[in-house]
Structure formats: C-alpha cells, structure tokens
Amino acid sequence: MPFRTRSAYAFLAPYLLIFATFWVWPIINSFLISFQNTRINPWKYSFQANWGRLFYDPAFYNALYNTLIILVIQVPVMIALATVMAVMLNSPLLKARPLFRFAFFAPVVVGEVAYAAVFRLMFSLDFGIINKLISAVGLSPVSWFDNANAAMALIILAVTWRWAGYNAIIILAGLQSIPDDLYEAATLDRVSKVQQFFHITLPLLKPIILFCVVLSVIGTMQLFTEPFLITNRGGPGGGTETLGLLLYRQGFTSLNFGYASAIAYTMAALAVSISLLNLWVGRDPK
Are the beta carbons of 141 and 122 closer than 8 angstroms? Predict the structure, then answer.
C-alpha cells in the first residue's frame, strides 16, 4: 500500500473507530437483540417474543395508525405551505427579505421543551389564548388535551409550525437556482404568473420538493418530542402515541429492549419503503 494511502487511513482511523463503536456495532447489536426475549434472565432467542408480537399487539397498531395519520395529513400540508412560503420569500416585491427568512426558520432553533410548554399554554382549556379566541367568535372552547382528535390536530399543527419554515428555506434555495431567463421568456409570451408557477417553477422544483418529502417522512416515522411533551406521553388514552413514543415506552419504561429493537427496525423499514415509493412516484418519465 502506498505511503500516502496509509497516511490517509491513519488520519481516518480515529473517526472510523468511533463510528464503528458507537454507530455500526449498536445497529448490529440491536438487530440481534430484536430476536431475543429480554423479559427473562438470561436472555434467550425467541422470534415470537418480539417479531411475532408485532402482528397481534394492539398498542403497535395504534401507534402505527397514529403515525400514518400524521404522515398522510401533516407532510403534504407542510410541503405545500413551505412551497408557498418559499415563493413569497423569493418575491422581489417583499421588503426586508432576510428578516422574514430568519423569522420563518427560527422555530427550528427554538428549544423543544420551551416550544412544547408554549403550545400547552396556548391551547389550555381554561386560560389558553386559542380557546379565548374561539370563545370570542361564539364557539365552544375545545378540550385539546382530553379529546383524541383534537390532540392529534394539535400535534399536526405543532409539527407543521416547527418544520414548515425549515423546508421553505430548502425550497427557496432551489427557487434561486432557476434562471430568470425562463420567466422573462414566459412573460414575453404572455404567460400568466400562475401558469409560470405550475409549468416552470413546480417542475424545476420537483427534485427539491422530493428531497423535503423524504426528509419529512423519515422525521415523521420517528416523531417523539411533540406527543411526549405536548400531549403528555401520547395522551389522551394513547390517542397520539406514535411509533417513536411506543419504542421509548417499551425500551426505557418497560425495559423490554428486544421488542423496542423490533419496533425500531420496523420504523426504519417503513421509512425506507415510503421514501422509495415517493422517489418512484416522483421520478422523471423516460
């Protein structure tokens, strides 16, 4: 092996060692643990204890259903909103554009505990500002934390608020890479702004939007913070419990590491499958 190659590997060795110790080995080990019954001492191999349990565990199906509901509703709404926000932020008519870009991106840098506490206060039944506004227009206050549907809507709203601006900035970067000549030529041909958006902007933004969709799918499949902090660990009655929260409950509350590992690999498989499906649907026709 040439000296330069050996030197390169020598410099990479500390990183590769840390990567193998804290990433590769835990991934392999958790897969092996998923085939063991960790409710007994010593642990023993048992496929049925974990993987078999996934097929008849109502808690798993409830968490899977809640996760898919959030995925189907929240991700399209957020991506559509982020696209509109990006177009507005890219408009030359908008004054103080850097300030607005920072404002839309700011929710990502807000601490998770802090923003969850704010949402709990805002949607409180007794003194929350949202219920006060609802009462001001003559409607009955909503018990956001005691009704499963309302709690799910709150989770979707919170996740959208937090990540829409982040995706808007990514889409904005894609918008700024589109040549202005295309819009100028379309304007000379008397193509309306709406037609330009649907026939120029959206087709050229498709790879960027697909990238945001894949990131959002992966993030939604492991959603944990919002149901844990905002709706009090997936309440009411498991109405907002996600797969990420179920994994936490099995692994760190029940100490059933084998079942938690099986759930983790199921989450990863679902995230990869749905992401590949999105990429296949959004591929360019040949």
Answer: no
CB 199 within 8 A of CB 219: no
With 0-12 / 13-18 / 19 or more C-beta atoms within 10 angstroms meaning exposed / middle / buried, residue 56 is exposed
- Short-list 275, 247, 71, 64, CA closest to 159: 71
Taking the C-alpha atoms of residue 102 and residue 104, their distance in angstroms, rounded to an integer, is 6
pTM: predicted TM-score of the whole model, two decimal places? 0.91
Cis peptide before 42 (omega within 30 of 0): yes
The alpha-carbon radius of gyration of the chain (Å, integer) is 23
Distance, in Å, from the CA atom of 164 to the CA atom of 87, rounded to the nearest integer, reads 13
At 195, list the tokens: 């037609």
pLDDT at position 285 is 65
Partner residues linked to 45 by β-bridges = 36
